[in-house]
Amino acid sequence: xxxxxxxxxxxxxxxxxxxxxxxxxxxxxxxxxxxxxxxxxxxxxxxxxxxxxxxxxxxxxxxxxxxxxxxxxxxxxxxxxxxxxxxxxxxxxxxxxxxxxxxxxxxxxxxxxxxxxxxxxxxxxxxxxxxxxxxxxxxxxxxxxxxxxxxxxxxxxxxxxxxxxxxxxxxxxxxxxxxxxxxxxxxxxxxxxxxxxxxxxxxxxxxxxxxxxxxxxxxxxxxxxxxxxxxxxxxxxxxxxxxxxxxxxxxxxxxxxxxxxxxxxxxxxxxxxxxxxxxxxxxxxxxxxxxxxxxxxxxxxxxxxxxxxxxxxxxxxxxxxxxxxxxxxxxx
Amino acid sequence: xxxxxxxxxxxxxxxxxxxxxxxxxxxxxxxxxxxxxxxxxxxxxxxxxxxxxxxxxxxxxxxxxxxxxxxxxxxxxxxxxxxxxxxxxxxxxxxxxxxxxxxxxxxxxxxxxxxxxxxxxxxxxxxxxxxxxxxxxxxxxxxxxxxxxxxxxxxxxxxxxxxxxxxxxxxxxxxxxxxxxxxxxxxxxxxxxxxxxxxxxxxxxxxxxxxxxxxxxxxxxxxxxxxxxxxxxxxxxxxxxx
Amino acid sequence: xxxxxxxxxxxxxxxxxxxxxxxxxxxxxxxxxxxxxxxxxxxxxxxxxxxxxxxxxxxxxxxxxxxxxxxxxxxxxxxxxxxxxxxxxxxxxxxxxxxxxxxxxxxxxxxxxxxxxxxxxxxxxxxxxxxxxxxxxxxxxxxxxxxxxxxxxxxxxxxxxxxxxxxxxxxxxxxxxxxxxxxxxxxxxxxxxxxxxxxxxxxxxxxxxxxxxxxxxxxxxxxxxxxxxxxxxxxxxxxxxxxxxxxxxxxxxxxxxxxxxxxxxxxxxxxxxxxxxxxxxxxxxxx
Lengths: 332, 242, 287
Ligand SMILES: Nc1ncnc2c1ncn2[C@@H]1O[C@H](COP(=O)(O)OP(=O)(O)OP(=O)(O)O)[C@@H](O)[C@H]1O
Ligand SMILES: [Mg+2]
Hints:
By secondary structure, chain A is mainly alpha-helical. Chain A has 14 helices and 2 strands. Chain B has 242 residues and is an alpha/beta fold.
């Protein structure tokens, strides 16, 4: 499966294949709070939003460029702490979010310089390292709230990035707009030179560089992009919880969660992270209700990730594609 | 003036000298063949010219500019493209997309890159496979993609490393036609083992043996040189040319 | 002065335990060419095996060592034959994801079975022992762990470098296809590497369980440290891992002695990133 599905000619079937995902995804996310309209459903929906934004951001680097980072909690944390600090010092949280995006981009450049000298597994391990360093520095910094982090008290209102407050559909749609921003920009990149170059880098770095692809530059661009969107997810997350703490934002667990979401959905597709967010959310809620919050969700996710890695590395999207293929074969 | 000049290239791997003081020039528009027995250092030479390995000594000069040990993508921008003996097709991209990675080098919009990639596929007679995935191709197909991708970067000089090895008769006959077409527009340096293929294509031939340039000359000169016959072509070929 | 010596001795003791954990990881990487991201969880599993053997069946942790080795060795072999082997045919992404999934899975199983509490083994014989030389104190559990780890690491080294099977392992690690031509079954060797990697980690875990409480996330610190050690030593290099383990053991103890112990991991990762920058093949790794 290639990420940039070629235009499928002018056949109706081709049009359907091209636009169906848009209709399905946008339809689902747009209608969710209307169909599921209790406040607790809205809380879940809001969670789903930041899952999807973070995983979509992560996937530009992890999926498109094939550089598996287990250190993206750092950027999630930057986003969360940006708005938390804004709350503490009474700045505007929107401005803080934008500032956070900038800081995330700068940190990505700083981290990228050493880690992109490494390939494959080494890269992944190095990102665990940078993630843990950031985690420990934040946890031990008094200015950043130490182990406690920050409790926030945002005033309700759109301008305060707290439209309707938590558990309200307004706040959900705020996230929806941010997600749209992530998806549209991802789609645009995937269709541009950068999207193709990143896939070439994932497939074979030497071949890519022989064809004139400046590898380091494009990895760095993908890293910046992913850092920025993961930090947006972090800001949104902190606004909802009205809280930002090191264990919730900066820990390896956060990086792992973002990664699982993308992997389950399918990292080779721009839609994968969104499918992943939906499935991840419902599976974890279901296990929580069914088995209590005792880690059984991890058993399931771990198992799915192993099965996917062994048998269908492109996650649920990959499974779907196989199924569609079978159907087409059966038809002809 | 010559387009490419290789000057005293020497490459050590530990104690082993894979290339020893190799010097030659390539004129604009010509097709230079490179032959030599297995392990003679042909690929190593290409790796250094294209920036994948740093020469221990010596310089590479492209159109008057020193490009020694520059990054491969920089060298590509300077107008030199190469293929890999051990093919490096992008397995998850289609053939057309594989070629687009090359054409993006001179085209920034996807539309233009796709269009040009399509044209290149026409030229190398591979359009019928445009939608196949890289990983679905046979070796012959992969070698064709190697060439197409390199051509799509619009190089002034093209380095082909055994672009026809491992192909059957019909496949390599087709590949020869492709090279004949290409050389009308671009300077070519090609490594090839099969003499029957290389001789009629080349303007000049360089012979490498044990890391050193043994000889350089027209195909006729090479074919009649007793040293070459002994060192490289072996008894069989020598007998046939008597 | 005696503080310094004490710190040095602590570093040595920690280093030898870390060496055993890291050698398990590096054997798997060296032979199978897969980084086991679940390696820390292997330690965790061994500690729980020891804990269960001692709390449920009254084994002293020392006696539980074979149990822990068997359990973790089995986990290693099973994971290889179920998921890792098919993933090896896939792309680099599959190879990273498969043990990443295993890591999550094992954490989940531990949380589900044992909850998130810290569990401590009570009444271990070793915990009442200690050796004192002048001002230097070597608590029984730590000392035993150090000695046991050294012995076990030595045994692995002997097995790999001196026995026929070990040489077959080495041959597989250099070139599985060539090994196949020589009549070695690479899959068996891969499985064996996971067995050795798992079992040795199980031994380390049982020794550590004598003095450290176990909880589902206990593997994190071990796994991360083991990655750093293996990367520092050069992936797949046993000698390199051994040296690097002591370097890290020292760094951990001395950074805690001179500075804030909260930052000791920062130093370790900082060292790791520095080494990766200037010597990416590790201390003894081949370029
Ligand atoms: N990275 C390397 N490290 C050590 N030795 C190398 C390396 N690459 C090549 N060599 C050695 O350098 C010599 C030349 O190899 P090279 O691949 O350039 O030969 P070649 O002429 O292309 O051979 P073939 O016709 O088989 O492709 C060989 O002896 C080879 O073993
Ligand atoms: Mg060669």
